[in-house]
Structures are given as structure tokens and as C-alpha cells.
Amino acid sequence: MEMIELAVPVLVFFLMFIIGASIEKTEIENLRAQKKQVIAVTLGQMLLLPLSAWLIIKVMQPPSLVAGGMLLVSLCPGGAVSNIYSFLAKANVALSVTLTAFNGVVSVLVLPLVMLTVFPSLLGVDFPLENIIVKQALQLVLLLLCPVVLGMIVRSVKPELMVKLMPPLEKIGAVGLLLLLLAIFSKFHQKIVEQLSSLLLLALMFTFASLVIAYCLSYFLQLNNKDEAAVVIEFPVRNLALAALIAVSIFNNSDYLLFAAVFFVIQTPIMLCIISLYRSALSRSRL
């Protein structure tokens, strides 16, 4: 488990650096006109996804460790992989990157407080106040906010170089996340097999709930097709590397990673279908 514990913060930092390096000044300026939509979608992720996870937990009554893993994933911000998915789907990549970065930065402030109140009341997990606030807030600042800012600085200083480096960096990040989840599978394959049916069902339910919430929110906000695609892709894709970091460093319980590993495997083919549908629809709309 030591290798996973060492790899997780490095991977989180790297993925958030990629997000920061993906943001161009012109994209931020163009998105100022959409600031209300960005705020609404961010709030939707922070409020509606944990709410849907909580409702599923209440209905299905899974084991506490599975429930904790699911709730943890729902509380995490969007993952950098969603930006790659949006690119493949021909969605609004600038909006996707902005949503991921903004949600990640807001999580620095919100996550410690939410976990301090939600986890004890729902799962009976108790944390010393100073531990959850100070330790986690510091980790999130160092591993979310700092790499995003660093990536933006590097992009502004060396824009041409970063444009060339972004495709291989994104591939390395995606491969790194895949290797991390494979390592989790290898480490806990017996526990995963024992609870596979429960994990599969919960992963499917949360994935489809996320997609439905995103589509309904996009319809309510009257987003165009490219923006809708970015939002629908963003909602199900959580920062699983951050979930792993919190599980091993805050909870000191790696069993919370079981749901995250199964969730990624179940979600991937579903997201590839979503990408294909939007790519086809958006390509036709340009004709």
C-alpha cells in the first residue's frame, strides 16, 4: 500500500497541473459571459451529486465502507479526464476545463467542511476538528490550487511549448490514473469480488443519476449543444485520484477505494458511448 500512498499525491498534482496548463487567457475572457452558468453547474455538482449518492445509499443500504466510498467520490470535484473526453466529443473544451478547475479550487474550501458534517452524521465516522480542517485543507491547497496556478503560469510564459506538450501530458495523466486503479484492483481484488454485485449496481446507479442530473441542469440553463456535451461529460467523471488521496491520508482506510475502482471500470464504456453520441451529433450540426 505504501507505493499507492506515495503515487497518489504525485498523480493528483500532475493532473491538476494539466488542467491549469489547459487554460488560456482568451478562454477565460470568453467564458466571462457564461459565469452564471459556470457557477450554477459547479453548485449543481457540489450539491446534487452528493444528494443523489445519499439517496441511493438510503435506498440500497450498502455496507458502510462501500457507502463511504461512493459518498467520497460524489463529493470530489470533476476529474481531468473529463477534459479529454470533451475534446474527443467535440464539446466545449474551454468550458470543460473551466468547470474542472473552478470546481477543484472551490473544493479546497468546501470539502473539509462537508466531510466534517456529512460523514459523521451519515456513516458514523468521527474526525478531530483540527485534523480534518487543517490537514485536509492544506493538502487540497497544495495538490489542487497550487498546481492549477502553476500550470496557468507556465502556459502564459511558454504558450507554444505547452500547446505541443499538452497531448502527451494528457495521455500520461490518463495512463497514470488507469495504473493507479489497476493497482487498487490488484491490492483489493478479493474484497472487490466479495462485494462485486453491490459495487456494480451502485456504480451504475450513480453514473446514470449523474448523467440525468447533468442533462436536466443543461436543459434548465438552456445551454447550446457543445456546452451541454461538456456539462453532461463533466458530471459523472470525478477526481478519483483525489478520492484515493483522502481515503489513504485522511481516513487512513484504503477500503474506501473499492467503489472508486469499480466505478471507473463501469463508467468508462458508458462515457465512451456518450462521447460517440455527442461527437456524431455535433459533427452533423456543423454540416
Automatic annotation (TrEMBL):
The UniProt transmembrane annotation reads 6-26, 38-57, 69-88, 100-125, 137-157, 169-186, 198-217, 229-251, 257-278
Annotated keywords: Membrane, Transmembrane, Transmembrane helix
Keyword Cell inner membrane (UniProt): no
Q: What is the lineage of its organism?
A: Bacteria, Pseudomonadati, Pseudomonadota, Gammaproteobacteria, Alteromonadales
Q: Where in the cell is it found?
A: Membrane
Which PANTHER family does UniProt cross-reference here? P3 PROTEIN, SODIUM-BILE ACID COTRANSPORTER
Coiled-coil annotation reads none
- Membrane-protein topology: Multi-pass membrane protein
Can you say what this protein is called? Bile acid:sodium symporter
Q: Please give the GO cellular component terms listed in this UniProt entry.
A: membrane
Superkingdom of the source species: Bacteria
Q: Which organism is it from?
A: Colwellia psychrerythraea (Vibrio psychroerythus)
Residues of the signal peptide = none
